[in-house]
Write a structure and sequence with these properties.
There is one protein chain. The chain is mainly α and 61 residues long. The chain contains three helices and no strands. Helix 2 runs antiparallel to helix 3.
């Protein structure tokens, strides 16, 4: 695996951390309804799964 691919994977991982922090902020401090938090978790869990699959594919090459 080249350094460029590793860097790209890490960048996407960092980018996907911001929704977690934002959802936690909304849930903890803004007291947003739990359904909104669940919807955000469902949306971003798909993206995390795609990132994991991409990482596995890159590692196995």
């Amino acid at each position: 695996m080249t350094g460029e691919k590793i860097e790209l994977l890490l960048e996407f991982g960092v980018i996907l951390l911001s929704p977690i922090v934002h959802t936690y902020y909304l849930w903890k401090f803004k007291k947003v309804d739990a359904s909104v938090v669940r919807q955000n978790i469902k949306i971003f869990s798909v993206l995390y799964a795609l990132l994991a699959v991409a990482g596995i594919v890159l590692l196995l090459r």
